[in-house]
Design goal:
By secondary structure, the protein is of the alpha+beta class. Helix content is 19%, strand content 33%.
Length: 242
């Protein structure tokens, strides 16, 4: 995007352009919650998904990047959505998105879902601007007076719309999981690892097979001069120091 200047805060430099930010997505742990295995799939099938069930663009609206306080992304989104509804501004402010990724963790047979924000410190707002490119005054004050809000990515007080490619990536990242998420694995066959816990603690081995759906890694370990496969939970091993 073009050069970005501050819009709402005093004397602070606006963040980097949206394209660079989207290309360098980072993850920060947000929350964990117990899994409900009997209902996960049904909820995913029936729930309305604004990232999928609505068009990428709606007439007269564009997408903009709003910088917010870190760890307040969900609070700002929920507060703005509530204010927009109360003030009846749905025709000027549409979807407000906080893209996240859900991953499954397994430890000691217990399963948890971890939700991580893909763009910490940013939310994405679908909005209709005035003909001169400025935010409507009532929307401006509604956003400005919300705790945790910083500034929009933009130039000379005018938010810069995201490009179609950026919007497409953001909405793709915002989709609800279509199925129960799998365990994120940091290991691949052939990796040299050290066992951290269990009966084979401190043994070195080589990853033979990765089983993400079960949260397991099959490691080849030399025991009494013979190589034997050992199945371990992924958190029981670490990559060996080179």
């Amino acid at each position: 995007m073009s050069e970005q200047n501050q819009m709402m805060t005093n004397g602070e430099q606006a963040p980097g352009d949206a394209g660079e930010m989207l290309d360098q997505a980072q993850t920060t742990t947000d929350s964990t919650a117990p899994v409900a295995p009997d209902t996960t799939e049904a909820v995913a099938e029936e729930a309305f998904d604004p990232a999928v069930d609505m068009p990428m663009y709606r007439e007269g609206m564009d997408w903009f990047v709003l910088r917010v306080a870190s760890n307040k992304e969900n609070f700002v989104r929920d507060t703005l959505q509530r204010k927009v509804q109360i003030e009846g501004l749905e025709q000027r402010v549409g979807r407000i998105m906080v893209p996240t990724e859900k991953t499954r963790t397994l430890k000691g047979g217990k399963q948890r879902i971890t939700e991580t924000k893909l763009y910490p410190g940013y939310i994405f707002v679908e909005m209709r601007l005035e003909p001169d490119g400025r935010i409507p005054q009532d929307v401006f004050f509604l956003i400005k007076e919300t705790t945790g809000v910083g500034d929009f990515v933009g130039t000379a007080g005018r938010p810069t719309p995201m490009s179609p490619a950026e919007v497409e990536k953001m909405l793709h990242d915002s989709k609800m999981p279509e199925e129960e998420p799998t365990v994120r694995m940091e290991f691949a066959p052939g990796d040299n690892v050290t066992i951290k816990e269990g009966p084979f603690e401190n043994y070195d081995g080589t990853v033979d097979t990765v089983l993400p759906e079960r949260g397991l890694v099959r490691v080849l370990v030399t025991i009494f001069g013979r190589q034997a496969p050992v199945e371990l939970e992924y958190w029981q091993i670490q990559k060996a120091e080179e």
